[in-house]
Amino acid sequence: MQELSIIQPQDITESAPTSLQLGEEYSAATYNIGFGAYTPEYSFFMDGGKSSWAASKESVLNTVEGASSLIAALDPDFALIQEIDLDATRSYHIDQYELLRKALPDYYSTFAVNYDSAFLAYPFTEPHGKSKSGLALFSRFPITGSMRRSFPISTSITKFFDLDRCYSVSRFPVENGKELVILTLHMSAYGNSDEIREGQILMLCEDMEREYFAGNYVICGGDFNHDLKALADDNMERESWAYPFPREKLPEHFEFCIDMLCGEERAQLWNSARNADMEYVPDLTYTVTLDGFIISDNIKCTAYENISTGYCYSDHDPVLLRFQLLD
Q: Residues 120, 18: contact at Cβ < 8 Å?
């Protein structure tokens, strides 16, 4: 476990909130921005597509700035953002965390590295190169502490094509003396065994349950890299990597927000991610919902929405949650 640095907003006013209130409605958004590479035309070599790098430096700036503007327009109290490059060959060494902070100047933030590769020499025609990347949490409320937790990951050759997966655990004071604890995550996708997936889920669930029984409110959000619309017994045709999330592993007192929707609402949700084996073609490209939120039962989900941009700035689109802390 590693303690994370907390960056303060540029200006803190005396009237700025210092703690969350019971019964007040708040919002949280999660968004995997795909290291600024994924225009709708982009396909990625690790998904069976063509490219290892973004199209150009200008393209990276445009997509990250577009994603940042979208987050700012959603105006969430908390923003959980994944695949942010700090310094990477694939994104022309643009510090995307800095761009996000400039677009969200009124937010506290914290960053956890989950990919730090000196040089990946594959693919040989366009080596993926050096990468330092991670995930961030932005908050309108003071972050009183934040830690990085390493997920168990593969020790086989597939480790070189996957990230050093992690999640961050961040704390916020509540008026009743308890804490809101937000877990920001990005789970494994490429080439990992059932054992690795199960180990990651077990670790996550143990941490959520520990915080709940300490009396805290818990939100876990991000890119789960599981098909969140699918149930374990559903026999729909899907990509081999789009596993249903094993709901039976969730501890008592926790539920996915998507499962709180009625069947029709759930079915009509825009899918939060597209496959990047090809450019995005509506009604042809495979799409799936990988992103979302789990909440504890002392939190009420008041609204839940997958935001459609047509994958304009990433191979993912944002998910927006509105919630209240219960007495």
A: no
The DSSP element (H or E) to which 172 belongs, if any, is strand 166-173
Q: Where are the domains of the chain?
A: 23-325
For residue 247, give the 3-state DSSP assignment. helix
Identify which of 122, 116, 153, 121 has the alpha carbon closest to the alpha carbon of residue 135: 116
Q: How sure is the predictor about 10, in pLDDT bands with cuts at 50, 70 and 90?
A: confident
pTM of the model: 0.93
CA–CA separation, 165 and 225 (whole Å)? 12
Distance, in Å, from the CA atom of 128 to the CA atom of 131, rounded to the nearest integer, reads 8
Q: What is the CATH number of domain 23-325?
A: 3.60.10.10
Dihedral pair phi/psi, residue 34, rounded to 5°: 60, 40
Closest CA to 250 of 205, 219, 211, 206: 205
Spell out the SS3 assignment of 253-315.
CEEEHHHHCCHHHHHHCCCCEECCCCCCCCCCCCEECCEEEEEECCEEEEEEEECCCCCCCCC
Dihedral pair phi/psi, residue 239, rounded to 5°? -65, 150
Dig out the tokens for 3 from the structure: 């303690």
* DSSP summary character for residue 60: H
Nearest to 12 by CA among 168, 139, 180, 179: 139
Alpha-carbon distance of 106 to 141, in angstroms, equals 10
Q: Retrieve residue 298's tokens.
A: 């002392």
Query: Between β-strands 217-223 and 179-186, what pairing exists: parallel, antiparallel or unpaired?
Result: parallel
Other CB atoms within 10 Å distance of the CB of residue 209: 17
User: pLDDT, tens digit, for every residue of 80-107?
Assistant: 999 999 999 999 999 999 999 999 999 9
Residue length of the chain: 327
CA dist., res. 306 & res. 317, Å (int): 7
Distance between CA atoms of residues 212 and 215, nearest Å: 5
